[in-house]
Every structure is written in structure tokens, then in C-alpha cells.
Specification:
OB fold (Dihydrolipoamide Acetyltransferase, E2P); alpha+beta; 27% helix; 4-stranded antiparallel β-sheet; 6-stranded mixed β-sheet; Chloramphenicol Acetyltransferase
Length: 438
Amino acid sequence: MATQILMPALSPTMEEGKLSKWLVKEGDAVKSGDILAEIETDKATMEFEAVDEGRIGKILVPEGSEGVKVNQPIATLLDEGETAGPVDISSAMKSIKEAVSGETKPQEAPKKAEPPAAKPAQQAAAPAKADHRVFASPLARKIAEQAGVDIAALSGSGPRGRIVKADVEAARKSGGAKPPAKAAMQPSAAAVPSIAPLPDARLFYKDGEYEEIPHDSMRKAIAKRLTQAKMLIPHFYLTIDCNIDELMTTRARLNERAPKGEDGYKLSVNDFVVKASALALLRVPQVNASWTETAILRHKHADIGVAVALDFGLITPIVFRAEEKGLAVISNEVKQLAERARARKLKPQEYEGGGFSISNLGMFGIKDFTAVINPPQSAILAVGMGEQRAVVRDGILRTATMMSVTLSCDHRVIDGATGARFLQAFKSYIEEPAAMLL
């Protein structure tokens, strides 16, 4: 029986994608690691690798198809000696959805007069055992089922930790299953509460007085994640003003002395903000954390996401281990990430995760604002523009270049005093850039 190749989940948040291009055709022999297709997710266009060897039997989803759901069959893979046969797509779709999603419909209580009703109840319980967080190729699942191997207990050697045929065969030969390298991911936060949807906006406007712009996959993903973040994360906000006169002077001096060519750089205020945030996270590590239902995850490095505005949405590529990098390195890395983000060339590992984010709208003349937390992070810093303001120091009225920043905090992880200590640490670095060298 042919094995189904499923639409992969190329990122933890991916639910559907566009099958942009097939790089194989029916009858081609493939092996693990071969590139099968290019798939466009809500954030980037990525290559889809084969996880098992065999021969392409039938391509079920033509290239250019949009809205292809994760775990939907897109092709079949034939093992040695197998031939392509008719494929019942509707049946395959139903079985895949039940086995992979782990979702079961609520069962009605069986009637006493109808004993056979107990059989469907037993069958419905089986899919509930399947864990949709166990990533395995269809062929590996089939072999594990036939061999009686608990696939949930295996460690995957395929792309992104996917369990492949070789992992199952190794476990079968050893007479058992290897323990997973890491504990299984916990279930996500409670589902979004059921709320009656808002009425369709079209009801309030006349036909012909507006233009409909269909949602693309990125806009859908942004809408869903931000709605979940605001509904499920208890936000609170802290604002502080920073004097950036010294920063501006230091920035101008460093840029004047910057080398030319490949080793050159041009520092922005945002580069100082990234570095100051990273060092502040080291001083107040309670902010550099993520919430789970069983524990708070305290991150060991300052992996900082920098919000990048795109023509088609928003993305937050991450500067990893920012506490270890100099201003010039941070500056060039942020520019490179932004360029690749606009070309939709970022890999999921370059924009997923992280422990903290920065959103800077100062270049647009925004004085101050509040930003929505980017889960699984617990805080995001909203940075406003630097402007000349009248300030009083030691009883004397003078002007200074001031910048307002607002910290959005997840109150499950960060208390008010903790957030305040972080902002004090951030302010000390921003107002005295030389302190970043200590």
C-alpha cells in the first residue's frame, strides 16, 4: 500500500501553506534529504525535504495550490515493488485528520437498548491516544504500528527531529524504543474562549464603496496570534523616559570612525536599544522568561526579536545571544535579517522563540505606544522617537533629547516591581552607553 506524503508543519504555528512548486515528478526515485517541493508559509518560502526513501507514486496536490492544510496528503510514496493505485482522498483526509490532530468529537451517551453503540465509543477513543505533537513520517508510523513499537517514545533523526523509517527499525532491532531526548511539549494555553463573532463589516457599507483585499496567510496568522495574545495574556504596561544625549553623541562619533567596505557599519539608535535590552535582561533575568502551565522557563541567553515592518505584514527575526555581541555586529545582523525578511527568505528558527522583543516606531515620529506581547515571550519593549524636551535637573530648566519606552509585561511571569527594575537597568545603559562595556 502506498505511503502518503503529508503537507508538513514547517513551523509550530503553521496551519496551512501554499505548495509553490514541485521539484520532483511522478515516478522519480527519492531518498531521505532530497528536496521534494517549495512551500510558502505565513512567513517565508521553504524547501520540503523527503524523510523516507522510495518512488513518487502520485502527486495529489498540484503546484500553485493555496490553503493546503498541514497533514493533508499531497503525494504518495511507493516502496520497493509497490505500484500506484487509486487513492481515496476523502477517506485519507478523514483518517489523517483524526490520527494527527488528536481531536475527537464529543460522543453521545450510548442508549441501553442499543449495545452496538459501545463499539463506536471504543473506536473514538483510539485517535485520542495519538499525539499530534509526535512528528513522524507516514511510513515510520505504518512500520511502528505493524511492529508494535511505541512511536511516541522514539527520538527522531530526520529533519527538525522528525521520526523516520530508520528510527523505527533501530528500535525494533533493539527490542524497545529509545527515550525521547526532551520531555514532550506541554499542551498550549487554554483555547481562546468562545465569543460571539463580530458582525461582518460588509453589512455596514454599500456595495461599490469599498475594495476587498483578500487576507493572505501572513495576515491571517498575525490576526490569530495577536487576538490570542491579547485574550490569553494578562498585559500590563510600564513607561520610562530616557535621556539619550550621550547616546546620540557616542553614535555620531562611532559612525564617523567606522571603517569602509565589508567591515563597515552604521549604527542606529535601535542597535543601542538591542544591546541595552540584552544587558538589562542579564541583570533582571526574571523578565527573560516564558510561561508554561507547569513552570516558568528562565532563558540563559538574551535572544532578542526585532520587529520588522513588511509591505505584507510584520515579522520579528531574532538576534541570538545579543549579550555577547558588539554594537557593530548587532547592527549588521539586524540589517541582514531585515533584508531576508522582506524577501521572505527567513528560516523558522530565525524568527520563532526568543525571550524578548523590541518594536521601534520612533523613525515614524511616534512619541510613545504600547505593543502586544509576542508569545511565547513574556515582554516586549515599545520604543518611541527621541525628541527635544524641557526638563528640570537640579532645579534648572534645560533641554534634553528624551526617548520614551514602554514595557508590555505578562503578569503571570513578571510583577510590577520586576518590570520596573528591568527598565531602571535599561535606562542606565541607554543614558551611559560606555557602561555597556563593563
